[in-house]
């Protein structure tokens, strides 16, 4: 059995995690699923910034764990959740790294939302 590769962010693939100064909300079909002033903004290479919400600021009862898993050599194994709405199921719309690699340990106990399925709104805090 081969081991999964583990990579460390660096100049060829930078990843930074910083506390967001904004008030960030995740909304699905008019329902607020998460709201926080304590998100982490993860900037990875040339990808758009992703807001990671602390689980304490997420309505975890609105999420349904799935069997879907993926692997990122920089972050580790990702687990997924779906969100049930009146119109159906948004499958695997939420992900989390429950045991992230050491280089990104700060995203442990945080979740992120796919912005093509969940409205993630960031508003500056006065």
Automatic annotation (TrEMBL):
Pfam families with a match to the protein in the record: NTP_transf_9
Residue ranges occupied by any DUF427 domain in the UniProt entry: 24-115
Protein name (record): DUF427 domain-containing protein
Organism name: Microlunatus endophyticus
């Amino acid at each position: 059995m081969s081991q999964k590769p583990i990579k460390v962010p660096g100049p060829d693939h930078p990843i930074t995690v910083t506390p967001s100064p904004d008030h960030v909300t995740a909304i699905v079909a008019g329902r607020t699923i998460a709201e926080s002033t304590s998100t982490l903004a993860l900037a990875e290479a040339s990808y758009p910034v992703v807001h990671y919400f602390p689980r304490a600021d997420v309505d975890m009862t609105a999420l349904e764990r799935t069997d879907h898993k993926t692997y990122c050599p920089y972050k580790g194994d990702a687990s997924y959740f779906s969100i049930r709405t009146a119109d159906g199921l948004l499958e695997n719309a939420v992900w989390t790294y429950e045991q992230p690699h050491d280089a990104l340990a700060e995203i442990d106990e945080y979740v992120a939302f796919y912005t093509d399925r969940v409205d993630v709104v960031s508003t500056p805090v006065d």
